[in-house]
Design a protein that fits this description.
Elements (H helix, E strand, L loop, with lengths): L4 H13 L7 H21 L10 H17 L1 H6 L4 H17 L24 H11 L12 H4 L1 H5 L8 E11 L3 E8 L1 E2 L2 E2 L8 E6 L11 H6 L4 E14 L4
Antiparallel strand pairs: 1-2, 1-6, 2-5, 3-4
Helix pairs in contact: 2-3
Length: about 250
């Protein structure tokens, strides 16, 4: 590290490229201190030289500490460096392999480490869908327009004129709690006449926990307001072709 700033900065960059796990704790500590000082300096002064600015004295102290720490650990640092001659020979061997035509280029499909976001276990989506179908105990998907026990027989019968007619159903949000899940639905029109549900909150029940009745899905908007359920907006909404039927 003797001989000025370029020399010690080169050494510092080399050390940073090593795995931190293989460095002695004092070396890691001084490097962390230098990185923190670098962040402070660049945040305030940008690319200004370290000899200038409000952190100039701190840089001088850190450089001295860095030299002392590296010198105390010089034997270890020397032991982990690859001899220059070995590096040259390795490159020459690779060049000979290329000339012979035996060289296999690295796969371009492998991502660079810097581009990797997370590590995980890939699962087949078809299997996940099968599991979702198995745990879903519902036998049909529908938007209730009227129910005789809640709205009366006449209210149900009034939809007779629309039976077997197609109607657009717009799904605008997903609401769910620990026991329920449902799509929020907005009904379209038949021959220009808007189809309205007698239910205060038109919805498509997706799932209920064991022992929970499907009709309980109508409580989801209230549970959302109480902080006991979540609402996720579907933007843009999904439109599905439905058909008016009697059940």
């Amino acid at each position: 590290v003797e001989g000025g700033r370029p020399q010690y900065m080169t050494t510092l960059i080399f050390i940073l490229l090593l795995s931190r796990a293989c460095l002695p704790d004092p070396v890691k500590a001084v490097l962390e201190e230098g990185l923190n000082l670098y962040k402070l300096h660049t945040k305030r002064h940008g690319r200004m030289e370290s000899t200038k600015g409000s952190y100039a004295n701190d840089w001088v102290k850190w450089e001295k500490q860095l030299r002392e720490t590296l010198l105390r650990n010089s034997e270890y640092l020397s032991s982990i460096q690859v001899p220059f001659g070995s590096a040259v020979n390795s490159v020459l061997e690779q060049l000979k392999t290329i000339i012979k035509g035996d060289y296999i280029a690295p796969s371009t499909e492998k991502k660079r480490l810097g581009a990797i976001v997370f590590a995980g276990v890939s699962l087949p989506i078809a299997e996940i869908r099968r599991i979702l179908n198995d745990v879903n105990t519902l036998k049909m998907a529908h938007v209730t327009l009227a129910h005789k026990r809640s709205h009366g027989v006449i209210a149900v019968a009034n939809y007779g004129q629309f039976v077997n007619r197609k109607v657009d159903v717009k799904l605008t949000a997903l609401l769910f709690s620990d026991n329920l899940a449902a799509f929020e639905a907005c009904l379209g029109s038949v021959d220009g006449e808007k189809i309205n549900s007698k239910n205060e909150w038109p919805h498509v029940t997706l799932w209920t926990a064991s022992g929970v009745a499907a009709k309980e899905a109508s409580t989801l908007p209230r549970l959302v307001l109480e902080g006991k359920a979540c609402r996720i907006e579907i933007d843009p909404p999904v439109v599905i072709d439905g058909e008016v039927e009697f059940f």
